[in-house]
Amino acid sequence: MRVIVFLGPSLAWEDARKALSGAEYLPPAARGDIIRAAEAGAKAIALIDGVFYQQAAVSHREILKAMELGSKVFGGSSMGALRASELDIYGMVGVGTIYEWYKSGKIRSDDEVALAFHPESLKPLSEPLVNIRATLEKALASGMINQQEHESILIAAKEVPFQLRNYPRILQKAIRLGLSSTRAGEILELIKNVRTDLKREDAIKVLERIREWRDD
Fold it and tell me: What 3-state DSSP class applies to 94?
């Protein structure tokens, strides 16, 4: 059975193959890639990472067409989570927390999953907002930060362009919004203990779901 996975900064291919062996791994999908995968005979297509701003993004129409051609399309973690939240009523399979956040309306913008990545290694060069949200929620739940700090840092994160998002820059922005520099330094150290890579976790869940479906 031919399985094609569009994957980039969310999870290294080496790690992906541990969760789902025997699949073909391709870089983040651009417009037209999903339909080409379906036309090439893929029985399952995983849309995890896709381009947003560099090129035209994967369209709803091509995903629907791929499913019409008989491909089972799974989505989660990044672009796939957003598209699955919009197309699950037509048969696309959404997987993971980020998909659930989009579906519930907790998050809405593609900026939530956008990040900069190296064009060759595909390694992430900035921190996606969904990971920051997950990290801050853990920090709040554990008592490392209070509600006001949580809200201030999240506002600061949204104000930093996605290509430049990292924790030092976000906390510098939070200082300009009123957080003390001493407290910002403390938080920067504290969140290292709860830093969460939600996109990676969800990417693995997508691959595990496909493996279960394929091997059933």
Answer: strand
Question: Can you give the length of the chain in residues?
Answer: 216
- Quote the CA–CA distance of 126 and 162 in Å, as a whole number: 7
DSSP conformation letters of 26-91:
ESSB-TTHHHHHHHTT-SEEEE--B-SSSSPPPPHHHHHHHHHTT-EEEEETTHHHHHHHHHGGGT
Question: Does the model's pTM come out above 0.85?
Answer: yes
Domain 3-105+200-215 annotated CATH 1.25.40? no
Domain residue ranges of the chain, discontinuous segments joined by +: 3-105+200-215
Residue 203: pLDDT band (50, 70, 90) is very high
At 85, list the tokens. 């939240």
Would you place residue 52 in the very low, low, confident or very high pLDDT band (cuts 50, 70, 90)?
A: confident
